[in-house]
Design a protein that fits this description.
heterodimer; A: 289 residues; alpha/beta; Collagenase (Catalytic Domain); globular; disordered N terminus; disordered C terminus; B: Porin; eight-stranded antiparallel β-barrel; two-stranded antiparallel sheet; binds zinc ion
């Protein structure tokens, strides 16, 4: 099975080893975006067959279109990160943005993927929010296929606040392209987790586990805890007013809405409450009104 | 997929309305001077288990989601009668998620609510607004984990993070007169709905608990009107 890979933002820091089983961060300050609503944009560059003559950044002949990448990204944010009850975080589908070929050809870090350290390449600094681009550079994914599907770093910081994160999806090899849509969504979801500041989880059922697992429809507890830790909700001061889904019956994406309490139970609860309040009003009206 | 994003103002108005309804409304009862209920106020404590977010979280490689999880829950509360069968029930409690999957991270939830309730012949219903605070903290330091083809030291959480959530609470209580020597044991089934207006973040917790009530001498009886 292919392994997911993301570089963490590790330079400058000295490590000491401790044991634990929990979510982790990719930086030592628990850095996170300093806003609640984060847009995820996709570079409009097309990777399929691009630069095929160049040994450094030749792309595979097959890769999904930027539009398809954007659609899968939206499904990833709504399947995973927008479903956490105890966070204020709200990810928003962005748009295709014209970043030229820089993000398709560039290196994520000044070092190669194999070096184990990462000094972010300033030429690929993301000015704000999250940018996803396909990319074919051999130093990001290996000259031949070593199974890396995507690499991510927050590469724009202001103190401990993340301002911008970059996700590069492997267009050099056919590994990502050959995944099913569901698996692609999981890979994108995992990389977005890194973009938000999470490191890996030692727990197999977490999306932030380092490796792709068999069946993935939901986040694991570790993912929930990690995002809740970095982006705690602060209701009632800051209500999660995010997404109220208005689905039409023929919505092709309806498989995304099957977790958590469904609408039927929600409306039953509402009905129960309204009937009950009716009781109170009825019994109380002589005194109250 | 289409989304609308209601404005924060809309939610604030709704919130103020609900708080008025659930809190101010029963309080204003007590300020009138007509015949109030003569039942004494009671205090109670409860012990039970809360299942957090059933159906929301994957717990194995096969994609199984939970319908039950173990979070011991303790609470303390009061029952103020303000009409023959109507009550206001302030309650505060704590549930401990313990370790298990989160060996290094601890997670617990503190909650308060002030539900109006109504007593029927065999059960008591209540609904209202609650506030849930989720505490997550960790040991700090780093953990070395696989990262692609090598391994990397990742950072563990070091401080305590607190999420606060407004919840819509519901509950039903069945007095267990037949089981215990006293008449004051109640089987409680409660649920709290997180983010009722957000179809993605919406989630429930449910609690099954045993509650034991006792009368409190001199407890203020705001709603008796005398
Ligand atoms: Zn990763």
């Amino acid at each position: 099975m292919f392994k997911l890979k993301a570089f963490s933002f590790l330079f400058f820091f000295v490590f000491h080893i401790a044991l634990g089983h929990s979510f982790t961060f990719n930086n030592n300050a628990a850095a996170a975006f300093d806003k609640d609503e984060i847009t995820v944009n996709v570079n409009d560059t097309d990777c399929a067959g691009a630069d095929s003559g160049d040994s450094n950044y030749a792309c595979n002949s097959d890769f999904i279109t930027p539009q398809k990448l954007l659609d899968l990204t939206e499904r990833a944010i709504n399947r995973f990160w927008n479903r956490i009850p105890t966070t204020r975080l709200n990810l928003v589908r962005g748009s295709l943005v014209s970043k030229g070929n820089t993000f398709r050809r560039g290196q994520l870090c000044n070092e190669s993927y194999a070096s184990g350290t990462c000094t972010p390449n300033t030429a690929l600094k993301v000015s704000s929010d999250i940018l996803i681009s396909c990319n074919c550079h051999k130093n990001n994914f290996g000259d031949s296929n070593v199974g890396i599907l995507g690499v991510t770093i927050p590469n724009n910081y202001d103190g401990v606040a993340i301002k911008g994160s970059l996700i590069l999806i492997n267009g050099r090899h056919d590994g990502f392209h050959n995944l099913t849509d569901n698996e692609k969504i999981n890979v994108i979801g995992h990389e977005i987790g890194h973009a938000l500041g999470l490191g890996h989880s030692p727990v197999e059922d977490s999306l932030m586990y380092y490796s792709n697992i068999g069946k993935r429809d939901h986040l694991g507890w570790d993912d929930l805890d990690g995002i809740s830790y970095l982006y705690p909700s602060s209701q009632p001061l800051n209500l999660n007013c995010g997404t109220v889904s208005l689905k039409s019956p023929n919505d092709s994406d309806s498989s995304e809405s099957n977790s958590g309490p469904n609408n039927t139970s929600f409306f039953l609860l509402s009905f129960f409450s309204i009937v009950f309040l009716g009781f109170i009003l009825r019994y109380g009206r002589r005194r109250f009104f | 997929m289409k989304y609308i994003t209601p404005s924060k103002k809309t939610h604030l108005i709704l919130l103020v309305f609900l708080f008025e309804f659930f809190l101010i409304f029963p309080l204003s009862y007590g300020s009138t001077e007509e015949n109030g209920a003569k039942k004494p106020s009671k205090a109670f404590w409860s012990v039970g288990n809360t299942t957090m977010f059933p159906g929301k979280v994957q717990i194995d490689k096969e994609g199984t989601t939970e319908t039950f999880n173990f979070n011991p829950t303790f609470s303390f509360g009061l029952e103020y009668p303000f009409r023959e069968t109507l009550l206001i029930i302030p309650e505060l409690g704590l549930n401990f998620s313990g370790n298990g999957r989160h060996a290094a991270v601890s997670r617990s939830t503190f909650f308060i609510s002030t539900d109006p309730g109504k007593r029927f012949k065999y059960f008591l219903l209540h609904t209202g607004i609650g506030l849930h605070w989720t505490f997550i903290d960790g040991p700090g330091g780093t953990e070395t984990l696989n990262n692609g083809n090598s391994s990397t030291a990742f950072y563990l959480p070091e401080f305590t993070s607190i999420s606060s959530n407004l919840t819509w609470t519901h509950g039903i209580g069945f007095p267990l007169d037949f089981m215990f020597d006293q008449k004051n044991a109640v089987l409680k089934l409660d649920s709290a709905l997180y983010n009722p207006f957000d179809s993605l973040k919406r989630a429930v917790t449910y609690r099954i608990a045993l509650q034991f009530s006792f009368s409190v001498e001199g407890l203020p009886t705001f709603f008796n009107g005398d």
